[in-house]
Amino acid sequence: DFLFFWGAVFLVTTTLVAFLKKENQELIPAKEETKGITDTYRLLFSIIKMPAVLTFCLLILTSKVGFSAADAVTGLKLVEEGVPKEHLALLAVPMVPLQIILPLVISKYTAGPQPLNTFYKAMPYRLLLGLEFAFLVWWAPKVKHEGGFPVYYYAVVVLSYALHQITLYSMYVAIMAFNAKVSDPLIGGTYMTLLNTVSNLGGNWPSTVALWLVDPLTVKECDGAQGHTCATAAATEV
């Protein structure tokens, strides 16, 4: 219902903008960015062919491989180990004010001539937090008792998530600042859209691959069924 409601709101508002909003002819620049869809794609390909842009795209497409599994799978594994979904959802509440404050704080460090320095400095800490998340998953069954999980376990989880948010936003804001800095003002919209799209893709494809590899890389044991490894869905069903 939530998604349906906001989907309807988006459709209505964008349709109203399309039909009712009129451009101010006096403020339209003499030279437009592009003349149509074909010109836009030609412009995109010409931007991608630039050696610096190509190198940067390869960087951001592969930079998140190291922590994709920790980001995508940790929550699912905690649920698998018995942590209630509603408790994990509640742990996201303290992160909201942090997510509001972090970009404001981090933007001070990314406003200089080298915004990617913040990106590079945050990366090793985010990789180390991947090991921390693995420890949290391993630790969960050790501290679990009949009443659930102790308060100190949830405290460690919240602290770990908070540190993770700091590294995540440091890298995110740095990339956005760099994209804004290097984009040519004459074709700013096209340039920024290209770099931001590649940046989003660089975060999404490793997470998808990580989720796909969870089952093949998970070691399983079947209780009371000797000779079965439960390595496949069919064996698990048996």
Automatic annotation (TrEMBL):
How does the protein's chain sit in the membrane according to the entry?
Answer: Multi-pass membrane protein
**Is the Chaperone keyword given for this protein?**
no
Query: Which SUPFAM superfamilies does the entry link to?
Result: MFS general substrate transporter
Q: What keywords are annotated for this sequence in UniProt? A: Membrane, Transmembrane, Transmembrane helix
One GO cellular component this record assigns the protein to is: membrane
Q: GO molecular function terms here?
A: acetyl-CoA transmembrane transporter activity
Localization annotation? Membrane
What Pfam families does UniProt report for this protein, alphabetically?
A: Acatn (PF13000)
Name any Gene Ontology BP term.
Answer: acetyl-CoA transmembrane transport
- According to the record, the segments passing through the membrane are 6-22, 43-67, 87-111, 123-140, 152-175
Q: Per its UniProt entry, which superkingdom is the organism in?
A: Eukaryota
Q: Which Gene3D superfamilies match?
A: MFS general substrate transporter like domains
Protein name, per record: ACATN protein
Q: Which organism is it from?
A: Chaetops frenatus (Rufous rock-jumper)
